[in-house]
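Progress narrative, Year 2. Work on Alanine dehydrogenase from Halorubrum salipaludis advanced from sequence curation to structure prediction during this period.
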Amino acid sequence: MQTLLLNADDVDENARMDRVIDAVRGAFTAYERGNAKMPAKSYIDLPEYNGDFRSMPAYLDVRTEDTDEDTGWDAAGIKWVNVHTDNPADHDLPTVMGTMIYSDPETAFPLAVLDGTTLTMKRTGAAAAVATDELAVPDASSLGIVGAGVQSYTQLEAIAAVRDIEEVVVSDLDEERVANFIDAFEDRFDVRAGSIAEAGHCDVLSTVTPVEDPIVGPDDVGEHTHVNAMGADAAGKHELADDLLLDATIVIDDHEQCTHSGEINVPYAAGDLTDDDIYGEIGEIVVGRRPGRAGTVGTADGEGVDGVTVFDSTGLAIQDVAAARVVYEQADDNDNGYPFDLLGLDG
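Result:
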């Protein structure tokens, strides 16, 4: 029995965004219904190397009353990821690297070892797409992006799969990054550079920066803008001003992670933002326990939120497992990747 090794190019090729979005939606559904097991993300801090390791295991089962044997599935895996800020300058390595082990839940056999960095970008974009589908105005046609790093590309790729995006405004202090982003998408969208306020007055805004001092205030967004706050992934990170958050409808992916290391972690720790200021978790909206944006599919007439909405996304291990399943099955069907006898069972 063979384990499939999938590098970054293999993951990119086989992570079909429409399927990853569906899988991440299924992960949120399973989690909300209690059909997922996801221990808290654990950290190993390494101050001597100005870095840390993070482990993210999960199991999810989407074989529910809404599925049958042909469409239901379960999956398990773990992502081992780091953040070493000195890597680019000192070692010519990326700051963040990840490895995903995708396993058969029944036997625990390691079906695949995947590049977790590309997988993370894909599932992060997919999570923003699910939130956008539930919380953005139905006729959203413009997308603003603050931060033109690697995560920005999958934000556009994924959100354009759930809304008919025509105009894109990208804002970043690094002009080269902005130019590269525009070059990548100018054949498909009306894409241009702009200020944070210009990006924020689009129908949808995704913020993908690592800042600790907020850079987006209440005057920087439109009256009905949906904001995907994707950048905060550690305590102290904070992209959106407190008064913006307090005036918005806040939807989170997981209470423990968001209050510890998500967009709301700083005002929550200070007591300026409480549980009463959180509308709910994205899974509640996906399964219909809370209404999403008024007028979106699945929201009854006369129901739904309005105004500015914020999705606080920390990234969940169930998303990685769901996305890994898509990549593995697609690669296995297409004979992609490198199969090898990891456990020595074929000898």
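The longest strand covers residues 51-61. The chain has two domains: 3-120+317-340, 123-312.
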